[in-house]
Inverse folding.
């Protein structure tokens, strides 16, 4: 086994070298952030990835959730403050761990069925 395979940031691995399944606990969410690359303004101006974003909330897709999460489902988009988050790398992909109370909004097609909410 090489050093890169045994590094703690690559995710939990069993004795045979196989990746272990991950289960989120309590009210925790595992989310995949939207790409942090270049973006375009509404006017078409290209904004580089290194540009200061200021106090701006970010969107991410929920990939896993704990048993006590009530308002969010797997696959939903959530709005959160990227300033105070915990990042973890699992099998080469970067994820963020959030508490449900740190989520400001949820965007999902299923929400349009029974409510008259804000359309973002």
């Amino acid at each position: 086994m090489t050093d890169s395979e045994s590094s703690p940031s690559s995710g939990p691995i069993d004795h045979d070298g196989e990746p272990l399944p991950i289960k989120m606990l309590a009210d925790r969410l595992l989310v995949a952030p939207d790409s942090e690359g270049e973006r375009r303004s509404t006017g078409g101006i290209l904004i580089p990835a290194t540009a200061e974003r200021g106090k701006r909330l970010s969107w991410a897709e929920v990939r896993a959730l704990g048993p006590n999460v009530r308002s969010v489902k797997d696959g939903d988009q959530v709005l959160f403050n990227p300033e105070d988050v915990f990042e973890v790398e699992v099998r080469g992909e970067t994820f963020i761990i959030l508490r449900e109370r740190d989520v400001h909004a949820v965007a999902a097609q299923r929400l349009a069925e029974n409510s008259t909410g804000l359309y973002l």
About this structure: Residues 1-9 have pLDDT under 50 and may be disordered. Strands lie at 28-33, 39-40, 46-47, 58-65, 77-80, 86-90, 93-99, 103-107.
